[in-house]
Write a structure and sequence with these properties.
Layout lengths: L4 H4 L4 E2 L1 H7 L2 H13 L5 H17 L4 E5 L11 E3 L1 E5 L2 E4 L3 H5 E2 L19 E5 L5 E4 L2 E10 L8 H21 L8 E7 L1 E7 H5 L2 H6 L24 H16 L4 E6 L5 E6 L2 E2 H21 L2 E4 L15 E7 L12 H20 L1 H6 L4 H7 L4 E6 L2 E6 L14 E4 L28 E4 L50
Parallel strand pairs: 2-9
Antiparallel strand pairs: 1-8, 2-3, 4-5, 6-7, 7-9, 8-9, 10-14, 10-16, 11-13, 11-15, 12-13, 17-18, 19-20
């Protein structure tokens, strides 16, 4: 495939280019208007799209279709139906109607609902998401859908995401109107989720029952060599792993997934795959596909891909860093400073709104990553942190700080990229990144503007037990001179 990447990319996706070639102009324009303006599709348009989807999929060997959705299980779900329709006792036709494209009715009694309904009332419906492209996987045409109850209650992860994207766009456009921008019709949240993972030999994996049952080790001795020398990070990729990465890239590219970067991570046998960021809806779909395909491809190389957040003690865990930004339908990045005072005012307003949102809704933000595996990786209460040029704004989960402050003179340098935390003062160990909402490495200028210097107390946590001395406590400007000192707080097993 190496010589035909441009032709093979997206070859298994019923994307916009395929629609232009196969659909009538009327049908294509109706779909485009549905995506951009939210207008409903007519049944005739759905019938034409379904027929062309079916023909395109059969040309590539597909025999079934499935509504591909994301229930509250952490993985995707799919129920496969063939295209066959009986014409006579000895003859079948291959059909796929617009009704079958638009809606499905899987049994919802065994999916988590958060106690919304009794089991005998658990009817669930899948509804086509026209903003996400259909694709072919394992001989089936997969149609991205939402999953909801008869009364419209969300039973999946995609429905809340689409609702939040719509509300964010509405409010962002409202703010842009205040700046006199009348061209923007939609604001889209962009995400680039980086996926870290471990690769281990399948024969070794099969000898560890704890890995088989839980996805992580429950006991064992530390290895003779861990990550102390930091020589695995960005090191030369072993031939066996390189062959796996190459096959993985080729499969992802066929599905239109923008797999861009691959490298060794910090811990031995740990690696990372990073895509180019795209809209949040597509990025979440692609990340689910990426994790599934990573495991499948590993099996072909007699390896096992571990996606648990903390499979081994004593070495780094696997985070999923999200590069996040906002862009308009006119191609403007709202987190990029402008060349005029009004453009800078727009940038600073959106940046301040983002910081305020993290502060006010930190509990909700924390809930989005509060699964057992991630909490085990963190080893204690999570910390939200935001990094700005020349300083840092912190939001500690469980504590409300009255405001954010930035320290340092006027300077221009990039925000820390890819979810990496800013360097701590000399002598303090850098904590593992917890929930870093990075702003995509843009050049940012933040003026001094008379902001007060802030002295940060060293962070304590179960991943770094060093330096038990007392630390200064932050005070707001005008609360008195100097800093108070507290005696060190000690807890069980040396934890703070």
């Amino acid at each position: 495939m190496s010589g035909n990447i441009s032709r093979q990319f997206g070859s298994m996706v019923f994307n916009e280019e395929v629609m232009k070639q196969r659909l009538s102009n009327t049908c294509y324009r109706a779909w485009k208007k549905c995506v951009e303006e939210g207008t409903p599709l007519s049944l005739e348009t759905a019938h034409e799209m379904a027929a062309e989807m079916k023909n395109w999929a059969m040309d590539r060997g597909a025999t079934h279709y499935t509504h591909w959705f994301q229930p509250m299980t952490g993985v995707t779900a799919e129920k496969h139906d063939s295209f066959i329709t009986p014409e006579s006792p000895s003859r079948v036709l291959m059909q796929f109607s617009g009704k079958e494209l638009v809606r499905g009715e899987p049994d919802a009694s065994s999916f988590p609902s958060g106690g919304l309904r009794a089991t005998f009332e658990a009817r669930g419906y899948t509804a086509w998401d026209p903003t996400a492209f259909a694709f072919i996987k394992d001989g089936s045409l997969c149609i991205p859908t939402i999953f909801c109850s008869y009364s419209g209650q969300a039973l999946d992860k995609k429905t809340p995401l689409l609702r939040s994207m719509e509300e964010l766009s509405r409010q962002a456009v409202r703010v842009l109107r205040l700046f006199g921008d009348t061209d923007v019709k939609r604001v889209v949240s962009q995400v680039g989720p980086e996926q870290e993972y471990f690769l281990i030999d399948k024969d070794v994996f099969n000898r560890r029952e704890d890995l088989i049952l839980t996805g992580r080790t429950l006991f064992g001795a530390k290895p003779p060599k861990g990550q102390e020398l930091e020589d695995h990070y960005f090191g030369t990729i072993k031939p066996r792993v390189a062959a796996y990465m190459q096959e993985l890239d080729e499969e992802l590219w066929q599905l239109g997934i923008l797999a861009k970067t691959k490298h060794n991570e910090v811990a031995p046998a740990q690696h990372e795959l990073a895509p180019i960021y795209t809209d949040a809806n597509t990025a979440c779909d692609h990340n689910q596909l990426t994790m599934e395909i990573m495991k499948k491809v590993a099996g072909r190389h007699n390896m096992v891909c571990l996606l648990h957040e903390k499979p081994f003690a004593g070495v780094n865990g696997s985070g999923k860093h999200d590069n996040w930004s906002l862009s308009t339908d006119t191609g403007m990045n709202l987190f990029r400073p402008g060349s005029t005072p009004s453009q800078n005012a727009r940038f600073l307003l959106f940046l301040a709104a983002f910081i305020k949102g993290v502060d006010e809704y930190q509990e909700l933000l924390r809930c989005t990553v509060a699964n057992p595996g991630n909490d085990h990786r963190l080893g204690g209460p999570a910390r939200h942190h935001l990094h700005l040029p020349g300083g840092r704004a912190d939001s500690h989960h469980g504590r409300h700080h009255p405001g954010y402050r930035v320290r340092g003179p006027e300077q221009e340098h990039p925000l820390h990229r890819r979810g990496r935390p800013a360097p701590h003062p000399p002598g303090h160990h850098r904590p593992q990144p917890h929930l870093p909402p990075g702003l995509h490495g843009q050049q940012v200028r933040v003026p001094d503007a008379g902001l007060q210097p802030v002295h940060h107390r060293p962070q304590r946590g179960p991943e770094h037990h060093h330096g038990r001395g007392a630390g200064p406590v932050r005070r707001r400007a005008g609360e008195g001179g100097g800093f108070q000192h507290r005696p060190p707080r000690r807890g069980p097993a040396g934890l703070y």
